[in-house]
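pinging the channel bc i need a second pair of eyes. not urgent but kinda urgent?? the chain im working w is below, pasted from the shared doc
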Amino acid sequence: MKPMRILFISIEGNTRNFVENLTAYAQKRHNQDPTNPLVVGKEISDQTDFATETEPYFVTVPTYLDGGDGIGSGVTELLTTTLGEYIGYGTNATLCLGIIGSGNKNFNAQYCLTAKRYSRMFHVPFLADYELRGTDRDVQRIYADMVTRNQEVQPQP
């Protein structure tokens, strides 16, 4: 079974930490039962050369916004636009299986707004969310969500 790929951008390290925990959890599950897929992360940054993706992937993105209330206009995405541009590069969006959002629930309607916008923009499901660095339960839940979505889109023989 091929590993599940996850593209991400990490500004303050929270998303990177979450992906590291998700990868470690997947490895533990795989060690217990080799039919459980691994997770491989690929960090996208302003220094990343855009490339054409050739394998399906998931995305996890934090929310950093300026202005607005998250509902109306006036919101400007900050710091994460490179990931959106990467997904939109060439045919990359066609291989995206789902978007996972992170944020701070203190920001109410803006919580995971970037992920929700990417979901609409690229016509892929908003798969799951977690707050800040996520918890062990978030890692387990999101891994299960990824496995389910992966099997829906790419049934195994």
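so Strands lie at 4-8, 39-43, 57-62, 65-66, 76-77, 96-103, 126-131. and The chain has one domain: 4-153. — does that match what u expected or am i reading it wrong
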